[in-house]
Design brief:
The protein has one helix at 6-15, and strands at 58-61, 66-68, 119-121, 132-138, 140-146, 157-165, 175-181, 189-199, 207-215, 230-238, 241-247, 256-264, 271-278, 291-294, 297-298, 301-307, 324-331, 335-349. It has 1 helix and 18 strands. It is mostly beta strands and 356 residues long. Strands 1, 2, 3, 5, 6, 8, 13, 14, 15 and 18 form a 10-stranded antiparallel β-sheet that branches. An 8-stranded antiparallel β-sheet has the order 4-7-17-9-10-11-12-16. It is globular, with a radius of gyration of 18 Å. It is 3% helix and 36% strand.
Length: 356
C-alpha cells in the first residue's frame, strides 16, 4: 500500500500485520493470530492457582506463561471451565480453549452497568474474572489485575504491564490478551464500553484493544466459538490514532476493511471508549461498519481502505449472535520502549451502556 502523509504510516503498520508475528503466532491480519499464537497458554486448567492472601494479583503472560496468584480467597485460576463467581460477568464461563461450543449463561448486570442484557467486569475482586481464559501471549509483559491505577476511586483495574519486544517497526510485537465466550443468546448487536489509560508512550504499532467474533451464516453446529471460523470486528489504534477494522476469519484474517481517523489516542489520563458492532444492521444486505466513541464523541473516519490494497472489499457477513469477546493489548509490530495500558469497567451489551 502506498499512501501519502499520515496514511503512509497507518497503511504500513496495518499491512505489516499480515506477515510473520514473531514469537510463534500463526498467520495474521491486522487483528490477530490463530488459535495457536505464540506461547499463549490457552485452555487447560489455567496454570497455577494460589488462593488466599491479602488481595494479590492475577496475571497472564510474563516470561513464565500463566499465573494466577492472590485474590481474597476462593478459586482464582484462569483457563479452566469457569469458576463459581465473576465480577459482573457470568457464572460458569465457557470452555477454556475456545475450541468448543458453549457460551456463558446470562448474568445480572454489575454495578454501574444497568443496560438490559449487559455483562460487565470491574475487576474489584483483584483477580482475573471468572470465564475469561488466556489467549495471546507473545514477547515481554504481563496481563494482570492490580491496584497500580484503578479508575474513579476503585481498587483494581486490568493492567497490560510493560509491553515490549522485537525490533521497532518489525513484524511481530508484544501481545497479552484474554477471551470470553458470550452467552449463546447474546444477539447480533454488541455495544462495548471501557475506560482506558495509556502511559508513557503511544505506540506507532497497530495496537488492538477489543474485538468480538461471530459465526458466518450456515456455520456448522458446534463451531460457534472456533476462532478460525469466525468473522470479527476490532477497535484499535495505529500510528497513534484510533482505527477500527472488519475481518473475515483468521487465519488469514484478510482482506480486511480498515477505517482510520485523525483522532489521537488519549495519553496520560482516563478516556471512555465505546464501540458498536452491528452485525444485524436492519434490512441491509451486509453487517454495518464498526463505530467508535471517545468520551461521548463519535470518531469520524477520515480514510477507509482494504488491506492488502490489491484485494477487494470483504463481504460483511451478517450474524445471528456474537460468541467470543477478546480484551487486552496486542501489538503487531515491535516496540522498544515499554508501554503500559490500564482497562477498567469493561462491559458489553445488546444496548448502549454509556460512560456514566
Amino acid at each position: 500500500m502506498k499512501r501519502t502523509g499520515m496514511i503512509v504510516g497507518v497503511a504500513l503498520a496495518l499491512a505489516a500485520c499480515g506477515g510473520s508475528q514473531g514469537g510463534g503466532a500463526t498467520g495474521g491480519s491486522a487483528g490477530g493470530t490463530g488459535g495457536t499464537g505464540g506461547g499463549a497458554a490457552s485452555g487447560g486448567t489455567g496454570g497455577e492457582s494460589n488462593s488466599g492472601g491479602g488481595g494479590g494479583t492475577s496475571s497472564i503472560g510474563g516470561s513464565g506463561g500463566v499465573t494466577a496468584s492472590g485474590g481474597s480467597g476462593g478459586d482464582t485460576s484462569v483457563g479452566g471451565s469457569g469458576g463459581s463467581t465473576s465480577t459482573g460477568g457470568a457464572a460458569d464461563g465457557g470452555a477454556g480453549s475456545g475450541g468448543t461450543d458453549g457460551g456463558a449463561p446470562d448474568a445480572p448486570p454489575a454495578a454501574g452497568c444497568s443496560a438490559p442484557g449487559a455483562i460487565c467486569w470491574d475487576f474489584e475482586t483483584g483477580a482475573l474474572p471468572t470465564g475469561w481464559t488466556p489467549y495471546r501471549n507473545e514477547f515481554n509483559g504481563t496481563l494482570l489485575v492490580d491496584g497500580t491505577r484503578p479508575y474513579n476511586g476503585s481498587r483494581y483495574s486490568l493492567h497490560a504491564k510493560d509491553l515490549m519486544g522485537n525490533v521497532e517497526g518489525k513484524d511481530g510485537g508484544p501481545k497479552k490478551t484474554m477471551k470470553f465466550n458470550l452467552p449463546s443468546t447474546f444477539g447480533p448487536t454488541l455495544w462495548g464500553r471501557a475506560f482506558i489509560y495509556v502511559d508513557p508512550a503511544r505506540p506507532m504499532s497497530h495496537a488492538g484493544l477489543f474485538n468480538a467474533r461471530y459465526p458466518r451464516p450456515g456455520a456448522a453446529a458446534g463451531m460457534s466459538t472456533t476462532i478460525s471460523t469466525l468473522d470479527w470486528y476490532e477497535v484499535a489504534s495505529s500510528a497513534m490514532n484510533y482505527v477500527s477494522i472488519y475481518h473475515p476469519p483468521e487465519p488469514p484474517g484478510t482482506p480486511e476493511w480498515v477505517q482510520t481517523s485523525d483522532t489521537p489516542l488519549v495519553l496520560g489520563h482516563w478516556a471512555c471508549m465505546e464501540w458498536l458492532f452491528d452485525a444485524k444492521n436492519g434490512d441491509a444486505a451486509e453487517a454495518a461498519d464498526p463505530r467508535v466513541w471517545i468520551d461521548g464523541t463519535e470518531i469520524v473516519w477520515s480514510n477507509t481502505f482494504v488491506s492488502p490494497s490489491t484485494a477487494t472489499r470483504p463481504t460483511h457477513e451478517k450474524a445471528t449472535t456474537f460468541t467470543v469477546l477478546e480484551a487486552g493489548v496486542y501489538l503487531y509490530q515491535g516496540l522498544s520502549t515499554a508501554t503500559n495500558w490500564w482497562i477498567d469497567d469493561l462491559g458489553v451489551s445488546p444496548q448502549r451502556i454509556g460512560c456514566n
